[in-house]
Amino acid sequence: xxxxxxxxxxxxxxxxxxxxxxxxxxxxxxxxxxxxxxxxxxxxxxxxxxxxxxxxxxxxxxxxxxxxxxxxxxxxxxxxxxxxxxxxxxxxxxxxxxxxxxxxxxxxxxxxxxxxxxxxxxxxxxxxxxxxxxxxxxxxxxxxxxxxxxxxxxxxxxxxxxxxxxxxxxxxxxxxxxxxxxxxxxxxxxxxxxxxxxxxxxxxxxxxxxxxxxxxx
Length: 217
Fold this sequence. Notes:
This protein is α+β, with helices and mostly antiparallel strands. The protein is 54% helix and 19% strand. The protein folds into two domains: 3-37 and 98-215, Heat Shock Protein 90 (2-Layer Sandwich); 41-93. The radius of gyration is 21 Å and the shape is elongated.
């Protein structure tokens, strides 16, 4: 695999204001690309609780005794708890916590869940290999992986494979198969953009001829 570009470093300390502004602009671009998936995720969780509430309301209306009414409302606490748990990965994107840590495999899970529908609609196969239980600071990896998958995936043609290889050293994102020019999009993420964001997040990014690799410092 030929290496075309290497980037490392991080925003902070002596970083310029311009560099921080550029990094925030890239984060916003990634967030706007993920917005439909985030909206769909929130709607799905809230809708489940809504449907349960409608069912409970009908059962309470037909309840002949207090015990019947209690049985009818019994599912609500568990549904609310499920909503809270399932919404956490989505909320991470809206209110990042600098102290939040996750296993690297979990980071990959969360980003793949957001990306999978869009990739499927474009007939791009998402393939995962390897794994790592090593804990990392979540948000830099989430943002950098999402940016990298967008950058590489946008250049995949129908029938291509977007492959993720996770190890203790980091994540390699590789395109295999047909290529295509990126579709017009005001929030397009180029490979060098993804590398710049990873740099701003304190990671090391390597742009290659067919993908992008991310590693911790």
